[in-house]
Amino acid sequence: MFGLDSLSGNAQAAAFIGIVLIEAIVLYVGYGALEQAFGEYVVGLLRGE
């Protein structure tokens, strides 16, 4: 997918760790933005307000 097959063992492991870390950061920021935008609305719906 990213052409990581050509890397050596240690470099490949470091690349995968970097990719997972970037993915985690993107998800953290994305979910934070969604919570900021819709959090109060959803809590209001759940409380029946």
UniProtKB/TrEMBL annotation:
<feature type="transmembrane region" description="Helical">
    <location>
        <begin position="12"/>
        <end position="31"/>
    </location>
</feature>
<keyword id="KW-0812">Transmembrane</keyword>
<keyword id="KW-1133">Transmembrane helix</keyword>
<dbReference type="Pfam" id="PF24352">
    <property type="entry name" value="DUF7512"/>
</dbReference>
<protein>
    <submittedName>
        <fullName>Uncharacterized protein</fullName>
    </submittedName>
</protein>
<dbReference type="InterPro" id="IPR055934">
    <property type="entry name" value="DUF7512"/>
</dbReference>
<keyword id="KW-0472">Membrane</keyword>
